[in-house]
Amino acid sequence: MANHFVVTWRDPQSAEFLQLKVKSIQDSQLGLTFVALSDFVLEAGTAIVNPTQEALHRRFEHTKMLHLSIHSIASIEEVGPDHQGLTLQGNRTNLLLFPPEKR
After folding, report:
1. Angstrom distance (rounded) from CA 22 to CA 2
2. Phi and psi at residue 65, in whole multiples of 5°?
3. CA–CA distance, 34 with 78 (Å, rounded to integer)
4. SS3 for 100?
5. Which of 47, 51, 90, 92 is the residue whose CA sits 20 to 30 A from 69?
6. Are 22 and 40 in contact (CB under 8 A)?
7. Residue ranges of the domains in the chain?
8. Which pTM does this prediction carry?
């Protein structure tokens, strides 16, 4: 398989950690706390059926771009022998996460 990223994130709909393979990760137009995933690598028609992968395939087969909050991302793996790395334009080093308000 060619170079790609494996993104692990916590899905806000199910609260489960999911993995998705994509060829492109870039800055999101939604702001500094989001990244945009595109060019999904969806494996279908394999001899071994994985229910989780099949559900992801159905969910994202018509999705052009997915904008994820950086706070929901657990990891991003760069996979492939000739990977050039991940470079984002927006500087996220000064973002602060405020604790939730105590009630």
Report:
1. 11
2. -150, 140
3. 19
4. coil
5. 51
6. yes
7. 4-10+22-74
8. 0.72
Asked whether the beta carbons of 8 and 19 are under 8 A apart, the reply is yes
Residue from 32, 33, 38, 17 nearest 69 by CA: 33
Quote the CA–CA distance of 96 and 63 in Å, as a whole number.
30
Cα-based angle 65, 27, 34 (whole degrees, multiple of 5): 80
The pair of structure tokens assigned to 39 is 């060019």
Task: Point out which residues pair with 24 in neighbouring strands.
Answer: 38
Neighbours of 80 (CB within 10 A): 12
Q: Following DSSP, what letter does each residue of 2-45 receive, concatenated? A: -SEEEEEEE-TTT--EEEEEEEEEEE-TT-TTEEEEEEE----S
- Collapsing DSSP to helix, strand or coil, 98 comes out as coil
